[in-house]
Amino acid sequence: MTETIKIKQADIKDLEVLALLGRLTWIETFSSLFKKRIHVQEYADENFSIETIKSFIDNPNAYFWIAYVNDLPIGYAKIEMNVVSDHVKGKNVCKLINLYVFSDFHSKKIGRLLWSNILNKVNALDCDKMWLAVLSTNIKAINFYLKNDFYNDDAFDLNIGDERFVMNIMVKDFKNK
Q1: What's residue 70's pLDDT?
Q2: Can you give the pLDDT at residue 85?
Q3: Domain boundaries, the chain
Q4: Which of 31, 130, 135, 161 could form a disulfide with 39 if both were Cys (CB 3.0 to 4.6 A apart)?
């Protein structure tokens, strides 16, 4: 059977799919790092509720994409324009909020396809810089960003429940190339 891979820019009709993808990909990626399951549950409940995702979709500066394999949603990405940071200065700065694909589909290079859609939108919006926060121990993700011309800029602590995580801030310049 030939696989069909499709990337779709998401809208309000995709609300439930985005909420479920966000929740499940986040849990798959990070739950093993927590000592207490309750903190995973609380974070997922707060950050991937229908209400929270709807507020993101309603934001005219936010853009989502959903990746499908044979019509099955298996990953998503989100950027937001004009997200200010003390660390990243520019005229037109965006933040890569999420880029997640279920691990069973990593070998299909879906992340690269989502990334291509992000770059097309960022270029169309004339973005100066893009920044993101990535877990300092997520070497696979850090290497992906380094290969795509991001550089490490700074770090900060993120507390979820009673867990502390070090997050790297990575930046990509679009105007200085």
Answers
A1: 96
A2: 79
A3: 5-173
A4: 161
b/e burial code for range 47-82 (CB count within 10 A of at least 16 → b): ebeeeebeebbeeeebbbbbbbbeeebbbbbbbbbe
Q: Does residue 167 carry a pLDDT above 90?
A: yes
Amino acid at 160: I
Reference 78, options 88, 70, 91, 67; nearest CA is 67
116-162 pLDDT, tens per residue? 999 999 999 999 999 999 999 999 899 999 999 999 999 999 999 99
The pTM of the full predicted model, rounded to 2 decimals, is 0.92
In this structure, are residues 11 and 117 in contact, taking their beta carbons and an 8 Å threshold? no
Q: Is the predicted pLDDT of residue 176 greater than 70, yes or no?
A: no
- Would you state the pLDDT for residue 117? 96
* 117-72-46 Cα angle (round to 5): 75
> Do you know the residue count of the chain?
177
Residues linked to residue 152 through DSSP beta bridges, in sequence order: 170
CATH second-level architecture of 5-173? Answer: 3-Layer(aba) Sandwich (3.40)
What burial class does residue 94 get, using C-beta atoms within 10 Å of its C-beta: 0-12 exposed, 13-18 middle, 19+ buried? buried
